[in-house]
C-alpha cells in the first residue's frame, strides 16, 4: 500500500508540474525505487523527473531501467545529456543497449563515446546475442600471479573504484592467461607477505564468452559465485559476469519460460506500459497454431458423428474428459520443463522419466476414474459411466506420457523445451483423447 | 554429455565398490558438482562417496545438497560424523535443517551442538517458517560507526574468516542499532584515516527478520545487493541475508509458482529421486477439485441436450471452442501471476489490467474468429460457422477477463496468486463458454 501511495504522489506532482515536489520525492527515494516508478509511467511523463535528477543519480536510475525504457528515455534526451549517460554506463549494459536500439540511434551513440569506451563497447557487441560476452564487464581488477598480497591490495585500492566489482579478482599469468580467481575476502584476511599464486583458487569455474549466458548464470547460482571469470578460446581473461546480472538473467529466463508454458511469446516490456498490440502479437501466433491444430478435434468428432447421434449422452462428457487429459498433461509437461531448466533432469533420463510419469499417470487415472464413475452413474447411468471411467484411466496415462516426452524430445533436437506449452500438450491430448473415448464407447456399448 | 558420462562413472564405481576410483573421482570434482551427482542417487548409494570425502570437503558438499537429501545423509551417518557435520554448518542452514527433520533427530542434533552453536540455532528457529530470520546468517563482521577505516580493516582481517560473508559489513551505533552498511570494496579503497560513520551508506535497504523471505530476496535483486541487513523490531542488527541464499530462494519460488500454475502442489525433492507416490499426491488434489468442477460442464451440456439432438454438428466444435477459451485464459492468468510475482503489477492496478486484457481478448477473438469462420464454413457450412465465429469472439474476451481478474482477486484476499492455475481458469471458462456457445447457437439458428 505504501508503494501505491508513493506512485500516486509522484504522478500527481508531474501532472501539476510541481518541480519542487518532484525534486523532494526524488531525494527521498533510492535509485531502484525511482526506476520502479518510472517504469510504470509513459515515457513522456518519465522524462520529467529523470531530467531533474542530479548527474550521479541519473546514471544509477538509468541503469536500473529495463532496456526498452532506457531506449525511450535516451530518445527523449538532448545531445549533451544523451552522451553523458552513455559514456558513464557500464560497458556491458551499454553494449546491450546499443545492440537493441534502431541503427540510427546506435550510430549516434557510438560516435559520441570516447575512443576507449567505444572500443570496449564494440568488443562486447562482437559477441552473439544472449552470449556471456554481451553481459560480462571487462572492467575488473586483474592481479598477476607473482604479486604479494600486500601489493595486490594496493592494486585493488588504486584501481578498485573504476571496476564494476572487486569481490572476485581474476588472477592471470603471462599472456593474460587466467590462472584462477581470488576473493577479496580471502585477500584481506591473508598474510600480507604471501604470494597470490599460493592462494589463488585455480579450480574455480570459468566460461567462454561465446557460451549462452543463461547456463553461465545457473552455474553461478549452483557454485555460489559472486562473479564468474570469462575467458576467450585461448583461456585469456576477457571479463567478469557479476551476480546482479546473473540474478536478472535468471529472472528473465524464468519469466520467458512461464510465458512460453502458457503458449505465449515472452514480452520484455513492463506489463503496465506495454501496448495492447504488443500483447496481442505475443499471444496470437500460438493461439492460431493451436486453433488450426484443434481442427483435428473437429475431424475426430465428425468421424464419430454417427456414434454421437446414436448416443447423444456421450457428448456430455467430452469437455470433462478432454479437460482432465489436458490438466494431467500440463502438470507433467510443466514438471519436466522446469526440471530440465534447473538441470535436475537431462535428456538421457528419458526412459526413467517416461517410466515414472507413466506410473504417475496411471495412478492419477485410477483415482479420477473412481470419481468419474460416481459422477457418471449419478448423472446418466452405469453403462456410459463405465465408458467414462475407462476413458479417464487411459487418457490420464496417455497425457502424462505425452506431456513428459515432448519437452525431452524438444530438448533432444535442440529446441528450448519451454516451447512445449501446456496448451500445446492439451491440444494434442484432446484429439487423441477423443479417439480413445469413442473407441472405448463403441467397444463397451457395442455400437 | 560430459555431465552424463561423469555420473555413470561414479555410479559404476559405487556398484563395483571401487573405493580408489571413487576417491579419485571425488578429488577431481568441485563440491557443487559432487552434490549434483549425489542428488541423483538413492541415499544408500550416496552415503558411500560421501563418507569417503575428507572432513573439510564433506561439509562443503553437504551444504550444497537439498534439505531432503541432507536429512537422508544425516540419518545414514553414525554419531561422531553426524555431530561434526552439524557443528560446522552455517547457523542458518542448520536451523532450517533442524526445523525440518523428525523431532527425535532434531533433539539428538541440538544436544550434540556446542552451547554457542546451540544458542544460535535456537535463535534462528524462533522465527516463523519462510521468514527472513530462518535464512539469515548471524555471523557477520560488525563494525562500530566510530572506527577508522584502518581499524575496521583490522577487524575484518581478524574476524573475517569466521563470517559467512565480508562483502557487506553492517555498521552499528550504540545498542547494536543498525546505522547502515559498508561494502568491503568501499572500505578497501577509502582513505585509512577516515571514520566509518562518514562513509557508511545509511540509506541502504534493510528488512525485519519476521518478514517473508521471498520479498526480501526480490528486494536484493532489485537493489543489486550482495547481502541484505536484517534487523529486529527495534532496528537492532541481527543478521545478513546473502546473495547465494537469495538466488536459491528465487529459484525455489519460481519453481513453486510454475508447479502451481499447472495445477500441482510444489514438490521440493529432486525430480530424479522423488517417489511416484509423492508426485501423485502433489498432483491429485487439484485434479480432483477440477474434475468435480468439470461436472458443471456435464450439467451445461445436459441442459442443452435437446439443442444438441436437433443439431449434432454443434457438438463437433465443443472441444475446439473450450480449448481456445482455455488457452486465452491461461495466457492472461500466467502473464498476471508473473507480473504480480516480480512486482510489475499491484492489486490497485486491477482496473488498468482488466481494461487492457479486455481489449487484448477482444482483438485475439476477432483474429481467431476469422480463422474459425473459415474452418467452420469449409467443414460444416455457413450457419454453424457463424455461430462458431461469434462464440470465439465472446469466449476469448471472457477468458482474458477471467484469467486476469482471478490472480488479482486472489492476491487481494491474501491468497498466493500462483494458485490460480491455468487449469483452474480453463475449467471455469469451459462451463461458462458452453453456455455462451449454446445461447449464441439458439439465437442465430433460431432453435
Q: What's the gist of this structure?
A:
Chain A contains 23 helices and 6 strands. Chain A is mostly helical.
Q: Which bin fits the share of residues in helices of chain A? A: 55-70%
- Specify the overall morphology of chain A: elongated
**Proportion of residues in extended strands of chain A:** 5-15%
DSSP helix count of chain A? 23
Which consecutive residue ranges of chain A, at least 5 long each, have pLDDT under 50? Answer: 1-5
Question: How is this structure best described in words?
Answer:
Two copies of one chain form a homodimer. Chain A has 447 residues and is mostly helical. Chain A contains 23 helices and six strands. In chain A, strand 5 and strand 6 form a beta hairpin. Mean pLDDT of chain A is 85; it is low at 1-5. At the A-B interface, helix 3, helix 12, helix 13, helix 15 and helix 16 of A face helix 3, helix 12, helix 13, helix 15 and helix 16 of B.
Give the tags:
homodimer, 447 residues, mainly alpha, 3-stranded mixed β-sheet, disordered N terminus
Write the layout of secondary structure elements.
The structure is a homodimer of 447-residue chains.
Chain A: H1 2-15, H2 19-28, H3 31-39, H4 43-52, H5 55-64, H6 67-76, H7 79-88, H8 91-100, H9 103-111, H10 115-125, H11 132-135, E1 143-144, H12 149-159, E2 168-172, E3 178-183, H13 184-189, H14 196-199, E4 206-208, H15 213-222, E5 227-231, E6 237-242, H16 243-261, H17 276-303, H18 305-310, H19 313-316, H20 318-341, H21 350-380, H22 382-412, H23 422-445
Parallel strand pairs in A: 1-2, 4-5
Antiparallel strand pairs in A: 2-3, 5-6
